[in-house]
Specification:
The structure holds 2 protein chains of 2 kinds. Chain A is of the alpha+beta class. Chain A has 5 helices and 7 strands; from the N terminus they run βαααβββαβαββ. Chain B has a 7-stranded mixed sheet with strand order 1-2-3-4-5-7-6, with helices on both faces. Classes of the chains: A alpha+beta, B alpha+beta. Chains A and B meet through β6 and β7 of A and β6 and β7 of B.
Chain lengths: 173, 161
């Protein structure tokens, strides 16, 4: 009885996803979006062509987009790695949405794309998010001082990452 | 030894930049995949950045640096990269390029935070960055694949007080 489901992000979800990211409580945790970011600008940040994995959590009651996770894959000498952004509607915090999105993203990244490194950035004061990432095995790799401007101040960010063993070869039975 | 001069990078430098990046020692220190084309270098040069410089000696490009500025809520930040010809290390080339690009960052663009990443085993580069006030902020484990091995990167940053 979780009350929500996961599905692929569609182009038609863009307005709802942008609106989710622009909610003040959600935006407070992001490092990119300033107030009055247009839907077009928010959507450009999750351009389907640039993303490797892009899904939403929707409410079973009314289909509203209440969570979002997007994974970007590195190129060239970083094609083994990816980084992601996560957002959950504040009314749905502590109800398993973030965990479900993280589990789905990690499963795809590791078991289907063969990534061996996944990283993220998070504000050093975003304790619930940091706790979630730790639960999924992410470790702090460093602290970026004055990383982003937020509500009139420079805010620090952690770099966090989790490493995975490379996929195995099954051989021919 | 003739002097090093610093000038703005131009589109016509693409072939020289490609040749520089394709040097095995440069690749080892800075990370590109082998066989960088002139077309790629031209595209790379064409990317908008706040400053792009080359170092020349006897009319040969022996180093380059570029400063990319963050946007929006990260407009106070910049990130830099630096390439120096492997036959011209320990000759003040990196020093001259860093001096010029950080002067731009500090005194002409007003940046508050300049960051970079460097291979964790590139002692010479790390030493240079420390000399210019960069401090290590983190170790990115297995950040890049180099010649068959996942190696760590350091992220370093320099704050203007």
């Amino acid at each position: 009885m979780s009350g929500f489901s996961l599905r692929a992000h569609e182009k038609t979800d863009a307005p709802a996803t942008a609106a989710l990211l622009m909610r003040p409580a959600v935006r407070h945790g992001t490092m990119v979006f300033a107030p009055y970011t247009s839907e077009a600008a928010a959507t450009a940040h999750m351009d389907a062509a640039a993303t490797t994995f892009n899904i939403v959590a929707v409410s079973d009651t009314d289909g509203a987009v209440i969570g979002h996770i997007v994974l970007f894959r590195g190129k060239g000498f970083q094609s083994h790695s990816g980084w992601f952004g996560l957002a959950v509607h504040e009314d749905w915090w502590r109800r398993g949405v973030g965990s479900a999105l993280m589990a789905a993203m990690i499963d795809t990244a590791h078991n289907w794309l063969g990534l061996t490194r996944i990283s993220l950035e998070v504000f050093t004061d975003n304790d619930p998010a940091i706790a979630l990432y730790r639960k999924f095995g992410f470790e702090i790799e460093g602290t970026m001082r004055r990383r982003v401007f937020r509500m009139g101040r420079y805010a620090d960010g952690y770099m966090m990452a989790r490493l995975f063993d490379p996929p195995k070869f099954s051989g021919t039975p | 030894m003739s002097t090093v001069s610093i000038r703005a990078r131009e589109e016509s430098d693409a072939a020289a930049i490609a040749a520089l990046i394709n040097l095995p020692g440069v690749r080892h220190g800075t990370l590109r995949v082998p066989f960088v084309s002139v077309d790629f270098a031209r595209t790379w040069i064409g990317h908008p950045c706040a400053a792009a410089l080359v170092a020349e000696r006897d009319a040969h490009v022996i180093g380059t640096t570029a400063l990319t500025r963050g946007s929006g809520r990260q407009a106070h930040t910049g990130s830099i990269l630096l390439f120096v010809h492997e036959d011209h290390t320990n000759a003040g080339v990196g020093h001259a390029l860093m001096t010029a690009v950080l002067d731009l960052a500090d005194n002409w663009l007003g940046l508050n935070r300049v960051s970079l990443t460097v291979n964790a085993d590139n002692d010479r580069a790390i030493h240079l960055y420390r000399k210019f006030g960069f401090e290590t902020e983190g170790v990115l484990r297995g950040d890049v694949l180099r010649d068959g091995v996942f190696i760590d990167s350091l992220t370093m940053a320099r704050l203007r007080l």
